[in-house]
Amino acid sequence: MSKEMVLFDIDGTLVDKEKRIPASAKQAITDLKKRGIEVAVATGRPAFLFDDICNELGIDSYVCFSGQYVVYKGEVIYENEIIEDEVLRLHEKAEAAGYPMIFMTAEEMKATVAEHPHVFEGLQRLRFDYPETDPKFHIGNKIFQALLFCDESSEEGMRCIEDRSRFIRWHQFACDVLPGGGSKAVGIGKLLDAAGISQRNTYAFGDGPNDVEMLQFAGVGIAMENAVAELKKAADHITDHVEQDGVAKGLRHFGLI
């Protein structure tokens, strides 16, 4: 029998707006593992901001930073940091324009400025605390993802070298900055290679704009009812809202549980 894997985004997919995992989703993941189906997380978050979720669900394989850092069964198998000179250029332009940033390594994140209202507002949506401030944190560290806090009209002017970085907006005042060409799909490909699982035997659940490539790459892409319109267009199936047992219902629809 061919091996299968199911991948889950976190925010809006595995957890609701209160950042709680629905009981039906917990049971569904337990049932998947009992059937020998591998389970992994694929998220834009850094690992240090979802290790509690993995521990609660007994998951030790994940794709984080929207594909830039991949772990299979507890072992790091892929790293893709933003090119150093791109990091420096981004910070220089952001600082000159008065835009705050957050830079993330595999272990921690630091803000370039303290107590900025746009940072507070963006992180409040994710229910993350405002990080410590270190305007030089990005220098000499492996940066896998950055957060840039500016409005959409200013985003284009912040791009430094074409195709060297990628911007994914998720808030009125915030967007992710990733290495050029980086995506969840790329990271998932690395994960499947390590697991020895065919792309066609994968199922992926998501809700946000950084999930588009993931759903297109997976054998079956499943969007939550609460997903953005762009993702629903890319999905093979739309399940119910995260707060209406969408994960469990989607898995049942395909006979996985």
UniProtKB/TrEMBL annotation:
InterPro entries: Cof, HAD-like_sf, HAD-SF_hydro_IIB, HAD_sf. GO terms for molecular function: hydrolase activity. It comes from Aciduricibacillus chroicocephali. This is Cof-type HAD-IIB family hydrolase. The keyword Ion transport does not apply. Signal peptide: none annotated. It comes from the Bacteria. Pfam families: Hydrolase_3.
